[in-house]
């Protein structure tokens, strides 16, 4: 039995191999040194930093757009040509635009419109695409063939070209944007869910559900769909980013939100002609808002992906 007493330096000790050594000599094993670790919160140690950072960025901007107009209490469409391009002041914290309208009020109202349209325009494609993809993957046969061939037909057209063509045919406005996005965006969700269901339907618990006598629709609603939409939820974050870019682009080209309703793309389109005069904020600030929202949503998508991979 080896002794574990601590001896002074130079005294013989017994190392784990059973050979004598000298305390402090190279042949003597040293006690493991404690590594310095930062006292990080649990949610950071769990690799959720991106998720929380994205929620913080998007939450702050969304809260400002939602509550800001009630606090500011300035009509975003009120014009004062005598105060055009006014510098920031107590009356106008971000100054005014070319028509003397309060720039901050238009920025907040425009963000409210763009975020609302971008989020709501994801719901219908998500629901429709997930339902069609689940049925195509689970039933197979002619249902799978019909759904996937229609999806291939829609995907054959460039996304922006098809959406712009639909908006041009239906006319400007929120309804046209909703219809155009819904008619095109469901394809991605259908393909994602179909791929998940093709793997899921071969699992043992699905076979057990069939054996127990559950109806097909109960199996789909209770087990198949809830276990196959995880990747679609992650994709929805990037889809919102795509919708924001689409709405801003359409408004910039004069085919999106109908004036005088404020919109970030419309603000950039109106301000581009005044950049040569040095009024860069008219186009830079709305563009920066688009970038920050897109960055926050990208962080949320990456964080959700990391969470799902960790659970899997």
TrEMBL record:
It is found in: Cell membrane. Pfam families: BPD_transp_1. Residues 1-18 have a biased composition (Polar residues). The keyword RNA-binding does not apply. CDD domains: TM_PBP2. It is a multi-pass membrane protein. PROSITE patterns: ABC_TM1. InterPro entries: BP-dependent_transpt_permease (IPR050366), MetI-like (IPR000515), MetI-like_sf (IPR035906). Coiled coil: none annotated. Keywords: Cell membrane, Membrane, Transmembrane, Transmembrane helix, Transport. The chain crosses the membrane at residues 51-72, 115-139, 146-168, 240-258, 278-301. Belongs to the binding-protein-dependent transport system permease family. This is ABC transporter permease. The lineage of its organism: Bacteria, Bacillati, Actinomycetota, Actinomycetes, Micrococcales.
């Amino acid at each position: 039995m080896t002794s574990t007493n601590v001896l002074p330096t130079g005294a013989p000790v017994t190392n784990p191999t059973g050979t004598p050594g000298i305390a402090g000599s190279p042949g003597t094993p040293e006690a493991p040194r404690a590594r310095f670790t930062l006292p990080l919160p649990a949610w950071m140690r769990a690799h959720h930093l991106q998720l929380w950072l994205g929620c913080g960025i998007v939450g702050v901007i969304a809260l400002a757009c939602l509550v800001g107009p009630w606090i500011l209490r300035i009509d975003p469409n009120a014009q004062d040509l005598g105060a055009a391009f006014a510098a920031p002041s107590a009356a106008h914290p971000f100054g005014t635009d070319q028509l003397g309208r309060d720039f901050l009020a238009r920025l907040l109202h425009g963000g409210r419109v763009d975020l609302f349209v971008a989020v709501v325009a994801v719901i219908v494609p998500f629901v429709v695409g997930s339902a069609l993809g689940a049925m195509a993957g689970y039933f197979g046969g002619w249902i799978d063939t019909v759904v996937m061939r229609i999806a291939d037909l829609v995907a054959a057209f460039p996304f922006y070209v098809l959406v712009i063509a639909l908006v041009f045919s239906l006319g400007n406005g929120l309804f046209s944007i909703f219809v155009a996005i819904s008619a095109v965006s469901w394809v991605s969700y259908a393909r994602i869910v179909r791929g998940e269901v093709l793997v899921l339907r071969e699992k043992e618990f699905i076979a057990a559900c069939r054996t127990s006598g559950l109806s097909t629709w109960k199996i789909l609603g209770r087990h198949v769909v809830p276990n196959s939409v995880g990747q679609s939820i992650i994709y929805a974050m990037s889809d919102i980013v795509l919708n924001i870019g689409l709405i801003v682009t359409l408004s910039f080209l004069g085919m999106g939100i109908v004036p005088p309703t404020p919109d970030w793309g419309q603000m950039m389109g109106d301000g581009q002609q005044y950049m040569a005069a040095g009024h860069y904020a008219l186009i830079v600030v709305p563009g920066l808002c688009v970038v920050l929202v897109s960055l926050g949503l990208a962080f949320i998508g990456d964080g959700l992906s990391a969470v799902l991979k960790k659970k899997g």
